[in-house]
Structures are given as structure tokens and as C-alpha cells.
# Entry
Amino acid sequence: MTPEFKGLLLAAVVKIVVVFSVINVGVMLIIWQERRQSAFVQDRRGPNRVGPFGLLQSVADGVKNFMKEETYPAAADRILFLLAPVMAFIPAMLGFAVIPFASPWPGFDFAMPVLGRFVSAGVVPMVMADLPVGFLFVLAITSIGVYGIVLAGWSSNSKYAFLGGLRAGAQMISYEIAMGMSLIAVIILVGNVTLSEVIGRQQDSMWFIFPLLIGFFIFMVSAFAETNRLPFDLPETESELVAGYHTEYSSMKFSMFFIAEYSNMITASALMAALFFGGWDIPFTTWDEGDPSVVKSLVTMVVFGLKTWLFLSLFIQIRWTLPRFRFDQLMHLGWKFLLPLALGYIMMIATTVWALDALGVAFGIRYALVLFGANIVLSYGLFWVLDRDRLFGGSRPGNKRRIA
Amino acid sequence: MTQLVFWVFAGVAIIAAFMCITRRSPVASALWLVQTLFALAAIYVLLDAQFIAALQILIYAGAIMVLFLFVIMLLNLGASGPSDMAGRPGKVIAGLLGILLIVELIAVAKVLPHSLISLPEGTVEVMNETQGAVGMIAEPLFRGYLVPFEVTSVLLLAAVVGAVVLAKRSV
# Structure
């Protein structure tokens, strides 16, 4: 083996091991945070007995789940029943592979006693696989995750699980479309789909949350639906379907669905941070864009982690704030509101970009600000539609309140 | 190495396709079809067509096959009834058509020169660098072949409208 090949191998293995462990430990901590935050919302204490502040509660639950008896429903399809948690778990772990999580690591050249020399001539990109298809890979992989849920519902041979599985199938397909459509605006601005270029483009102008405000809104709503989080957790509504698709699951098989849900949340949050909040970019400074160094990589990694964590906290806060949608309302929102909105939004962004290019405005901060203005105008119009005369004109005497 | 990867995925694709048509349970059949689509996506990646591979998984494996599965589950299809290929004449015709297809494939592989269907070595990598995986497809689609592309979308729109009208008898 040449030293270059060994360097490549070392970088790849270290990145994979680090990210995989960070995601799994992150899932554990996020479950703990969810329970504490929900306790805060409901004015109680939450888990605080195992370890400091109850931090090790998830470890205790994990040990419990390993010890529990594996149960199989009598009329279940054994193979698919066993396969379904795996089919939910593996895509959830894969999605993160294309998301860059720090500024590039400088090249290295060192020797170890037994293993010999390790060389990386160029910089090491801090992403597990910088695929040319970029975030399309994340969309493709998350769309595979639905098989686990649908098959769990079907193979359990229980009506509650079955209904949950059906709902998951319909819901995921509906919101995938709105999600994909909202990302076309990003493709228009960047001209490519690789996330490293998306982040570079944001460093050249400003974070895409400003020029693509409504696109972010559509993406976020779809991401909530795709990860089956409240207000869209129709596949597992405990008040009507017992526990939905995982009603018949116990022990570690149930745990795998649980871990899959939370790692999907982490991937969705990281994607939101990368696409709309500059990824590992530190705002108001160009220090992080200079020559790569180890310190820069570590600092940007922490910044990226912070942004991701903020979205995770938002996921949790919204779960414990909003009530659940009814299924027909969910379909109505997806097909009759988000999809036409996303299509109209693509036209609006494309027209504005075309006009800006025709006027010869160079891509930069001014360019982004014009798009931001267009977004503000559109969102003001949207508020009037969404409000249905309740906030803006509702208190006026003689106003007929139309609450559909 | 590439050769080895190709043979692995080609083998998986053929075995999965065979399982797909021989399984009795419709759900198992649909899942084997998903496996076939995955193996084909891997072969597309080997051909440097990453964008096509991503779309293959995103649209075929991720959306259309989920809809298939959804319908199978909703109608609660059990083991299939008698096949429409029943009887000796059906089997003979099916066999003849299969042989014809193999002959055609061999003929195409023998007659068509390899240079006609493949680009010079390294072209795709250069295009990937300069235009990106999506730009490579989008450029000819929206410039050179704009009219066929738009005609296809009108056709698809007609199909969608037709499906809605058929499904919803009383509009």
C-alpha cells in the first residue's frame, strides 16, 4: 500500500467512525433532552435520577431493551417483521454521509511505528462522501426509510399497526414532493446539487434563509412530516392507533425504530443548517474561509453542531406545543397548499433570478437582498391568505368570520 | 475492481428479478423488484451516471414502489390466483418471446459498434467537473431537446388528468 492510499483510508475510516458515534450518542442525548424539555413544557421534572441530571437515562433504557423478551405476534410474517426495523434503521444512518460538517482539514504527512507513513497531499474534505448528486442522495435515502415503517405495519398483522403503516406510506409520498420542489429554488441559486457548493455559494452572498425564506418554510414543514414528528405523527397517533406501526414491536426491535426516528431528525436538522443556514460557516467573519487549519476545522464543527442542535430543539419544542393534525387536514396541507405554493415559488424565484441576471447584477449580497425583498412581499400576501380574516380583520365589527 | 463490482451487482439484479417473478406473495414480489432497482442504480453509478442513479432510487424505489406496496396492502392481495399464462399455448408463446428478446440483445451487441454508444474515455468526468451532475443532463434537455421534453410533459399531464377522471366518476 502506498502512503497516499493509507492516508485516504485513514481519513475515511476516522470520519465514518466519528460521525457514526456522534450520531448515536447524539440520539441518546436528544432523547434525554426531549424528555426534559417536555417535562419543562408540562411543568414537571422529567428523568433526573440516572447519572448527573438524568443524562444516563437513555443508557438505562437501552440496557432494559436489550434484556427484554423478543415477542412475535402469532400471525405475523416472521421474515418481514424482523427485517422492517433494519430497513428503517439503515437509511436513517446513511443519510448523513453527504453533509459536510466542518471546514476542510489540512493535508497531513506523518509516520507511525508499525504502520508506516500516512500522506494526504491535498486538503481532506470534512464530509464522508462528497457525491456529485449531493442532497439528492439524502432525499433518495430518506424516501427509502418509509419501507421499514410500511412493512412493520403490514407484517405485524394487526389492524392498528396496519393503519399506521398505510398512513406513513401516504404521508411520506405526499410530503416528499413538496420537499423536493422547495429545494429546486436552492438549485436555481447554486446551479449544482453538491452541498459543498451550496455552502460556498452562501459564503459568497448570505445565508439562504434570507433569499429563500419561503422555500425554507416549505422545507421545514415537509421535514417535520417526513420524520413523522408532531404535528404530523399520524402513523403512530397514540390516541387512535395505540402506537401505530410499532404497536406489536418490543425490546431492541422497537428501539431501532426509535433510534431511526431520532437520527432522521438529526439528518433533517443538519440538512436545514447546511442548505439554509450556511452549514459550517461562521457569520460576520471570513476567518473560517481562509487556508485550512486544524483549529478552524474544530471550531466550524462546533458551529455546525450548534446550528443542528438548534433545529433539534425546535423539533422538540414544536412537538410539545402544537396539537396533532387530522389525516385529511394533513393531506389537504400537503397537496392543496404546500405543492401549489412550492410550484408558484419556483416560478417567482426563477423570474427574479432571470431579471437580476438580465440587469447584470453580480451574485452577491445585493442579489440576495433583492430576492429577500421578493420573499417578504410574497410572505405578506401569504399571511393574508392563511389568516382567513381572523387576525387582520377579525375584530372589526360587522366582519363575518370565515373559519373553514 | 470496477469489473468485480459490476458482476456483483449484475448478479444481484438478475437473482432479484428472478425472485420477483417467481414469488407467490405480492408484497415479497414488490420488495424483490425494489432490490432489482437498487442493483440497477449501482450499475448506473458504475457508468458515471450518478444523477440517473439518484433519480432511480428517489422516484422508482422511493416513490413508485411505495405506491405499489400501498395499493397491494390496501387491496389486501393474498397469493395470486391462476396465472394468465396458464396452459401449453401460453407457455410456448412466452418461451418464444423470451428467446426472441435474447436474440435481439445479442444482435444489438454484435452489430452496433461500441464507439457509437459510448463517449471517449474521461468525457463524463470532465463534464461532471465543469457542469455538475445535474447540469450535464439539464443542459441538453432544456436547450437541445426542449420541444420533445415539453411534449412529453403535456403527455404526462394528459395521463394525470385521465387518471383523475377515471378514479373520480362523478366530477
About this structure: Residues 3-281+298-387 of chain A form one domain. The longest helix of chain A spans residues 3-41. The mean pLDDT of chain A is 84. The interface with chain B takes residues 77, 80, 131-134, 136-137, 139-141, 143-144, 146-147, 150-151, 153-154, 162, 165-166, 169-170, 172-173, 176, 180, 187, 191-194, 197 of chain A (CB under 8 Å).
